[in-house]
């Protein structure tokens, strides 16, 4: 069957009409838009569909058929009758007619570049979608879900159960992690995410987003109370090997995650990894107790704290201008000594002027601003006056990094556990056939001492015979081993003498 590839999985190299795009407005300001191809005026804009931001207006025609990551300049749009659309106008004979902008079919006007303002057009990704999506619930951010997917062994072909879809942040990230192609039919087993949501409004909104993002074949969402109805899909087992529970009471849903024959949503032949997402330690305690009761092993808890490092150039020195961000302290000892020399020279000139004034004689005029002028003309330490690159302020100073003072993330605890596969009698028989425990013939314990000595003599005799045939002399180690093995036999066969 024909499937439209998702922009999150196969975005292509250039933007196109009808696809999702992420607009970068600032460092942490992203906006998701659906690109449209307009043939005429839209909402009063003669250029067609237009994105309005604080940096200017951007008609969609300037955002189409360009490489992802391109910088797009703002346009000077013609608003036309925007604001008056669908408003009835009154003619001389008081006959109401539709606005010209609504009834006209004039082609879209070509956009002209504005004097300032720009944005970046980025291809959709789970990280950017998490930063731009409308928050309907608490969002699982990138530091959390990247670690979760690694711990639950999510890879192409994995089938994941997700309970508590919420805003869909983890759904998009897990869909990319398990994607290994769209299924051709119902019998084609591919990587898939089985998502469950209890809130009806969030379920419908999430279903619309999945269909709009062309993730229908990868993500299957259902409206269900998993505490009561479990995780079976259309009466069949999803054969999941990874589980993520973002629920208020995850311990109530663990009873359905077992290996019961005929009604288990887990893969019976593989190890299953689980992660629960809980904001309170009381929830963690009850979840851990239930996991251990049901036979889950390797239970541990992790808390992730994200802190961003800001890299800046630190400009330090008394010769730098008094600008914001500069530290007016000596950069090194040499600069401090040079500053002291200038201060001493100024003091001597001031004293000479005072003495000359008291005696009534003319003195050399004192240059009060000589230090300031020298500081403006003198190059900073390590700066070459003839090099234009060193005149750039962003190239001056040494690189330093500082971490943010506060954590810009939420506090939640991640509980991980592992459920090994069940060991059946059939598996036991296969293992015994491959590794016959207790039936080994050539191990210490199954052969008596005399038999081992006899076998060793035969090995040495065959080795000695081969060397004699080749005419090679016996080495000392072979002779010593032969003597050691022959001595006990001779002592046992020889009669005892007094």
From TrEMBL:
Gene Ontology BP annotations: tRNA methylation
Matches recorded under PROSITE patterns: SAM_TRM61
GO CC field: nucleus; tRNA (m1A) methyltransferase complex
Compositional bias of kind Polar residues: 345-360, 486-498
Compartment annotation: Nucleus
Region (Disordered): 77-107, 345-403, 430-498
UniProt keyword terms in alphabetical order: Methyltransferase, Nucleus, S-adenosyl-L-methionine, Transferase, tRNA processing
Enzyme class, first EC level, given as a word: transferase
Enzyme Commission no: 2.1.1.220
Domain tRNA (adenine(58)-N(1))-methyltransferase catalytic subunit TRM61 C-terminal: 117-418
GO molecular function: tRNA (adenine(58)-N1)-methyltransferase activity
KW Methyltransferase (keyword) present: yes
Domain of life of the native organism: Eukaryota
Alphabetized Gene3D superfamilies for the sequence: 3.10.330.20, Vaccinia Virus protein VP39 (3.40.50.150)
InterPro entries: SAM-dependent_MTases_sf, TRM61_C, tRNA_MeTrfase_Gcd14
Stretches with biased composition (Basic and acidic residues): 470-485
Protein name in UniProt: tRNA (adenine(58)-N(1))-methyltransferase catalytic subunit TRM61
Source species taxonomy: Eukaryota, Fungi, Dikarya, Ascomycota, Pezizomycotina
């Amino acid at each position: 069957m024909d499937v439209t590839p998702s922009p999150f999985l196969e975005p292509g190299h250039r933007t196109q009409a009808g696809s999702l795009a992420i607009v970068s407005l600032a460092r942490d300001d992203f906006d998701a838009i659906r690109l449209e191809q307009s043939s005429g005026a839209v909402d009063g804009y003669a250029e067609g569909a237009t994105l309005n931001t604080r940096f200017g207006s951007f008609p969609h025609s300037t955002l189409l058929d360009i490489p992802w990551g391109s910088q797009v300049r703002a346009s000077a749009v013609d608003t036309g009758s925007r604001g008056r659309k669908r408003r009835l106008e009154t003619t001389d004979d008081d006959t109401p007619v539709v606005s010209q902008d609504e009834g006209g079919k004039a082609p879209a006007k070509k956009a002209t570049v504005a004097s300032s303002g720009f944005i970046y057009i980025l291809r959709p990704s789970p990280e950017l979608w998490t930063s731009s999506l409308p928050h309907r619930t608490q969002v699982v951010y990138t530091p959390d879900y990247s670690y979760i997917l690694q711990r639950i062994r999510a890879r192409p072909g994995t089938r994941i159960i997700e309970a508590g879809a919420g805003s869909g942040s983890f759904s998009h990230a897990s869909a990319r992690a398990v994607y290994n192609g769209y299924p051709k039919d119902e019998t084609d087993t591919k990587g898939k995410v089985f998502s469950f949501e209890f809130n009806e409004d969030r379920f419908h909104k999430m279903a619309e987003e999945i269909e709009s993002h062309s993730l229908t074949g990868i993500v299957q969402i259902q409206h269900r109370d998993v505490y009561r109805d479990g995780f079976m899909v259309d009466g069949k087992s999803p054969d999941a090997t990874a589980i993520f529970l973002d629920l208020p009471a995850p311990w109530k849903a663990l009873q359905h995650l077992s290996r019961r024959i005929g009604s288990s949503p887990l893969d019976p032949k593989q190890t299953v990894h689980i992660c629960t997402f809980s904001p309170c330690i009381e929830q963690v305690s009850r979840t851990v107790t239930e996991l251990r009761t049901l036979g889950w092993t390797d239970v541990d808890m992790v808390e992730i704290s994200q802190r961003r490092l800001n890299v800046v150039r630190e400009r330090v020195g008394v010769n730098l201008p008094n600008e914001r961000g500069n530290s007016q302290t000596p950069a090194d000892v040499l600069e401090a000594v040079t500053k002291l020399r200038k201060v001493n020279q100024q003091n001597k000139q001031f004293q000479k002027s005072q003495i000359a004034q008291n005696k009534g004689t003319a003195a050399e005029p004192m240059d009060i601003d000589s230090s300031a002028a020298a500081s403006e003309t003198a190059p900073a330490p390590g700066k070459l006056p003839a090099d234009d690159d060193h005149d750039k302020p962003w190239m001056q100073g040494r690189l330093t990094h500082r971490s943010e003072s506060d954590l810009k993330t939420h506090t939640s605890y991640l509980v991980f556990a592992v459920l090994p596969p069940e060991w059946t009698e059939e598996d036991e028989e296969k293992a015994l056939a491959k590794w016959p425990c207790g039936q080994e013939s050539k191990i210490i314990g199954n052969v008596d001492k005399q038999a081992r000595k006899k076998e060793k003599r035969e090995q040495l005799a065959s080795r000695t015979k081969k060397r004699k045939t080749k005419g090679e002399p016996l080495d000392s180690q072979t002779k010593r081993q032969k003597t050691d093995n022959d001595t006990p036999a001779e002592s046992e066969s020889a009669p005892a003498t007094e």
